[in-house]
């Protein structure tokens, strides 16, 4: 799946979620929601690493939680970029991929 298709599909899920709960997604919401998801990722990471109590979750559940929270952070990043008109693949190329040539 191409990133553009993924962004559009994630956008649809997010828009339907907001509509079903009756709230408006705006610039602040996108950033705050990303921050919330980063917090949940941090908690999942700490539990998975044995640095926080696992709350009765076994290793497979902790691994699944970590994967799920990574997905949430990734999708919220895509949504934040889309909301602000950022071409994320282009931004990645400008910020990260320029180093490929410099590292050779």
TrEMBL record:
Entries under SUPFAM superfamilies matching the protein: all-alpha NTP pyrophosphatases
Name of the molecule in the record: Pyrophosphatase
Naturally occurring in which organism (per UniProt): Saccharopolyspora griseoalba
Organism lineage string: Bacteria, Bacillati, Actinomycetota, Actinomycetes, Pseudonocardiales
């Amino acid at each position: 799946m191409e990133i553009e298709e993924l962004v559009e599909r994630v956008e649809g899920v997010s828009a339907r979620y907001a509509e079903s709960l009756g709230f408006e997604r705006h610039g602040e919401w996108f950033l705050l929601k990303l921050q919330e998801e980063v917090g949940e990722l941090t908690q999942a990471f700490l539990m998975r690493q044995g640095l926080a109590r696992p709350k009765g979750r076994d290793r497979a559940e902790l691994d699944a939680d970590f994967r799920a929270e990574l997905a949430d952070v990734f999708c919220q990043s895509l949504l934040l970029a889309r909301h602000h008109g950022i071409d994320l693949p282009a931004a990645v190329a400008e910020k990260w991929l320029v180093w490929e040539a410099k590292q050779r």
